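Question: I have long wanted to understand how a fold can be written as tokens. Here is the record:
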Amino acid sequence: MDNLVNILYIIAFSMFIYGLMGLTGPKTAVRGNWIAAVGMALAVVATLIAVRDTGNWIIIAAGLIVGVVLGVPPAKFTKMTEMPQLVAAFNGVGGGTVALIAWAEFLDTSGFSNFKHGEEPTVHIVIGSLFAAIIGSISFWGSLIAFGKLQEILPGRPIGLGRLQQPLNLLLVIGAIAASVVIGISAADGGASGWVMVAVLVLAGVLGLMVVLPIGGADMPVVISLLNALTGLSAAAAGLALNNTAMIVAGMIVGASGTILTNLMAKAMNRSIPAIVAGGFGGGGTAPGASGDGEVKTAKATSAADAAVQMAYANQVIVVPGYGMAVAQAQHAVKEMAELLEAKGVEVKYAIHPVAGRMPGHMNVLLAEAEVSYDAMKEMDDINGEFGRTDVALVIGANDVTNPAAREDASSPIYGMPVLNVDKAKSVIVLKRSMNSGFAGIDNPLFYADTTSMLFGDAKKSVSAVTEELKAL
């Protein structure tokens, strides 16, 4: 039976890897997701076989039922606009689970002092469990804050203690490590008190809160990716402590892929990961319409009819989607409008910024849901050179990722961040509800440019109005 368990684990993590390979493109993503899901089902079956002699089948079955009841409805009914929140919540659950596993292992072995079947508290078991407890707890509580900011339960702006923030974080790190050292030393001498393990979990949890609270909304996509990587690493550490091959491999896959993605997104924002974790960015820009010297700027409004005429007689239109498109669920309306333009001989492309939206790949997912061709979606580096040859750039709810201040204003908080060169297009039409700043809280000079006109209102209604005008032309 032990051989069967190992074989099932090998098949399971092989399916994890193969399924992850399928996520590299929209055409294979659904299949890859199903393959990985089947792999996880096999891993669960293998685990049930491995614990067949524990006599806790009722508790295990109850846990499975609770997991299904809590997991399926959100995944099935959550709107695409709320997917970042769901990702943050699910990631937090994973980190919290790992922390609880580490705590259970501590309690089951009397503070790592005695193990079943006469096993000694080896270094990899103790260190693996403590690492899982600290990182899992950080990920759980940090993900809760990320969820709260994305759901707007908490303010998107940085919430911190100023100069006291980093010293406090350092003290929390030292405290968690010190408590872990006490547990490790005590493992060979009768075991540590349960309260010391509680202290590790609490200190790490407070650290998770204090690290994410000062991070502004503009950095949330990177934070989600970073927390996901931490959850993977904590799961791998727990797998090492439990001698569970599937957990080790799955955790390393999540940790490695999350680390790579976090690094890529940080580069896309021209910000280092330590600078992001240090917090303090987002939510403190100038008031909309006011320049640094107090000059009041005005934006030029347009109508759906004028926008339709501009695009109908263009050679190329580049659509720049942002969170406003997600909120309005306008992706299907955008696809219909694009089909009408293409029928009139207009070439339509989509410019995707790496951190547009509230999570990695947010815009790609929305457009793929509307069956927009993957070939029409262009990454920032591939599309930026084309804006100068573009007749109309249609910006739908994007703000920070189109802000030319990132290139031109050294005093701007986002200076140096790579952005889409929307302002280089011959004309720009921006769809927004109002002149409010984006998630970073920074005003966008693009909105006041001579070549820019604003079409105010709900993005879906505005795009639908433009579509009706196109039909009449």
Remarks:
- Confidence is low (pLDDT under 50) at residues 283-287.
- DSSP finds 17 helices and six strands in the chain.
- The longest strand covers residues 316-321.
- The first helix runs from residue 2 to 22.
